[in-house]
Design goal:
Layout (H helix, E strand, L loop, with lengths): L20 H18 L3 E8 L2 E9 L12 E2 L3 H15 L23 H5 L22 H7 L17 H15 L3 H10 L19 E3 L6 E3 L15 E2 L1 H12 L8 H8 L3 E2 L7 E3 L4 E5 L2 E10 L2 E8 L4 E7 L7 H15 L14 H6 L1 E5 L2 E7 L5 E5 L7 E5 L5 E3 L8 E6 L5 E6 L2 E4 L25
Antiparallel strand pairs: 1-2, 1-12, 3-6, 4-5, 7-8, 8-9, 9-10, 10-11, 11-12, 13-14, 13-20, 14-15, 15-16, 16-17, 17-18, 18-19, 19-20
Helix pairs in contact: 1-9, 2-5, 2-6
């Protein structure tokens, strides 16, 4: 069972309020600076709040016209996040396990001992690129030819030793999807993700209107058109084309609006850190098919992408309920990842979420009775009733671990946070039905500090809480 670290802000039924003109101007200004300073032929962007697009913008030209939210750009490694969802759907269906070795599903490679989960989190120790010519700028190989060229050197590090970004690993994961679905990975993608989420302008190959990819000369304002091709077996690492409008839907998806494509618990599992990318700073890492970043107090999830002639980024902060997409048709110099993060921050800072409390319409009296003060030994805790029958156990001590608990069908609760993640909370009752104590994976919490009427492990001093001379 996977555990959800907590629901994000609820999505309102009505359309979100329009952004203030000053906020919209600030967003456009940031995008314009990126296009001008980065000398990008064009950029397109969108901002999402509470699952809905609240702003789109663009600068530059595509075929002589300003790009629109429907103009396609190549999105590079954002493709990996789609592949990650396909793999996790297979896991949820019981067709594979994250601890399965690759050889169980794609036999015959020299890296068959690496697990699916390690490949999803770039912890499999594989080479960054496949053998042969620079795959991003040359015609792709079909799987048999790519597989025939793999050798033991593709395993560069022991599995799990460190984060090492690998395009090759996601080419292999694409073969896992194709093998288990009995169809090309991109067909499975279209049927299982793109159609349900109504992302009709996200395609395996470019579909007009689309931007052309360019390199910009470092010392002159002139362009060089970049090659474009079908990467074939390496396509799962960076093939897809998409639009600001379609990727705004993907922002909402990564933020929690899964549209029935993936279980919310599974998406939360994908956003949970598996490896740290920058071990010294601990600001960026990787989940299961998703990049993660800490940025000015926000916890962003999504993915960056680059292919010759293109750069792209999708970021979302599920806690803030805001995210952004930035697309550019330039090989370098446009910091789209930083710009996307800036757009999220501009909205959050200029128009912070407005809190609103509403009472519970219906609450179980037996749960209400449980709320209030509890003690683990002499340490005080407060138990609160949350929505949907969840419980929150909050310590008075700042250095202790708080947590929420989700009810299960057997009358117990499962921990969702911190130290108590996955642990079981039980309500222990006396023969007459009254509550005796709480049992949190052998920790006994009582209504009074070391309540003598409760079964305290180790027993209690018969003299009780009397003072001790010379203590």
């Amino acid at each position: 069972m996977t555990l959800e670290p907590g629901p994000g802000p609820s999505t309102p039924e009505s359309a979100p309020e329009a952004l203030l003109p000053g906020t919209e101007r600030a967003l456009l200004r940031r995008l314009a600076e990126a296009q001008a300073n980065g000398r990008a032929p064009s950029v397109a962007a969108a901002v999402v709040r509470d699952g809905r697009t609240v702003w789109t913008g663009s600068r530059g030209r595509v075929d002589g016209l300003p790009p629109t939210p429907g103009t396609q750009y190549r999105i590079g490694s954002i493709t990996k996040s789609f592949v990650g969802v396909l793999v996790m759907r297979l896991r949820d269906e019981g067709l594979l396990g994250l601890d399965d070795p690759l050889d169980e599903h794609v036999p015959g490679t020299p890296v068959g001992d690496r697990t699916i989960g390690r490949l999803l989190s770039h912890a499999g120790g594989l080479a960054a690129e496949p053998p042969g010519e620079w795959w991003e700028r040359t015609p792709g190989k079909d799987w048999p030819e790519l597989a025939a060229g793999l050798g033991p050197d593709e395993a560069r590090f022991p599995a799990g030793r460190e984060f090492h970004y690998t395009n090759l690993g996601f080419g292999l994961l694409g073969q896992v999807v194709a093998g288990l679905r009995g169809k090309p990975w991109n067909e499975a993608l279209r049927e299982e993700i793109l159609l349900p989420l109504e992302m009709a302008r996200t395609t395996h190959r470019p579909a007009a209107p689309h931007a052309t990819g360019y390199a910009v000369h470092p010392w002159a304002d002139v362009l060089l058109e970049e090659p474009e091709h079908d990467a074939r077996a390496m396509a799962p690492a960076g093939q897809l084309w998409s639009t600001a409008a379609d990727l705004a839907r993907w922002v909402a998806f990564v933020g929690g609006d899964t549209g029935g494509v993936l279980a919310p618990d599974t998406l939360a599992e994908m956003r949970a850190p598996q490896t740290v990318e920058d071990a010294g700073a601990w600001t960026s890492g990787y989940g299961l098919g998703l990049q993660l970043r800490r940025d000015r107090g926000m916890r962003l999830a999504g993915h960056t992408g680059s292919m010759p002639g293109f750069r792209a980024t999708v970021w979302t902060d599920p806690d803030e309920g805001a995210g952004a997409v930035v697309l550019a048709n330039a090989t370098s110099a446009v910091p789209v990842a930083a710009v996307a993060a800036d757009l999220v921050h501009l909205v959050a800072e200029r128009e912070p979420r407005l809190p609103e409390w509403t009472p519970l319409a219906d609450a179980d009296p037996a749960l209400v009775e449980l709320t209030g003060a509890w003690y683990w030994g002499p340490a005080p805790y407060t138990l609160r009733l949350l929505r949907d029958g969840w419980l929150s156990l909050v310590p008075a001590a700042l250095d202790a671990s708080a947590g929420r608990f989700r009810p299960g069908p057997d009358g117990t609760w499962t921990g969702l946070d911190g130290y108590h993640t996955g642990e079981t909370l039980k309500i222990v009752r006396r023969p007459d039905g009254t509550v005796s104590h709480l049992d949190l994976n052998t920790f006994v919490l009582t209504r009074a500090p070391y309540d003598p009427s409760a079964p305290i492990p180790g027993g209690l001093d018969e003299r009780g809480w009397a003072g001790r001379a010379g203590a």
